[in-house]
Write the structure tokens for this entry.
Amino acid sequence: MELLEIKDISLYFGGIKALSNLDMAVKEGELHAVIGPNGAGKTSLFNCISGVYRPTSGEILLKDRRISHLKPHKIAEQGIARTFQNIELFANMSVIDNLLLGCHTHMTSGPLACAFFLGKALKQEEENRRQVEKIIDFLEIEKVRKKTVGSLPYGIQKRVEIGRALAMKPKILLLDEPVAGMNVEETEDIARFVLDIKEEMEITIVMVEHDMGVVMDIADSVTVLDFGSKISEGTPVEVQSDPKVISAYLGD
């Protein structure tokens, strides 16, 4: 079953074509990677899915419901969470507080009830804190749970950002270069967590990544972009041997 459908998406910035007539489908329960050279349009695609950009044409469907006209917070409420290429955490806040921010879509009480933890707000706060503690255990960050995020190593901050996205209880998790800038050990850890998220939490994942070793090891399917257009799609083995992909990365 197709959970996310990208239908004929184009995105223009003046005369610049960031995406051009792009079609892509992500099946429920799969790990779908999006790869391509720098400037291929990968992050622009993520920005369209999450509502940061509104496509110039085409539409995006989540479970057959059009979401490409919605604002980012409404798309988040529909069950799409994301991480960013550059870490976007609140550096002066603790790990726990950063993770609790991911629960904001589940707080339905009014400002007064939330401020004084009245009635339903108290129950929601307790549930959110239980959810956050489960994520802390899952990502193996118990020792830093109360530390300020800005004081933590880069690899741990990446885990915290993934944890904040998981706190939203998403249907789809968008990971924008989750292992960028990491050493071999950190890369292996994140790849393991990503697989566990898919298999144990049963969350569909769309991942942009430049590390081809990670993509070929853990992705179920791959879409390849070049200059905003799709040039190949299939299993990792099929994509890896496609002459168009080889040309885009290495030249003719």
User: Anything to note?
Assistant: The two ends are 37 Å apart (CA to CA). Strands lie at 2-13, 16-27, 31-35, 57-62, 65-66, 80-82, 172-176, 204-208, 221-226, 229-234. The domain at 2-79+170-250 is CATH 3.40.50.300 (Rossmann fold).
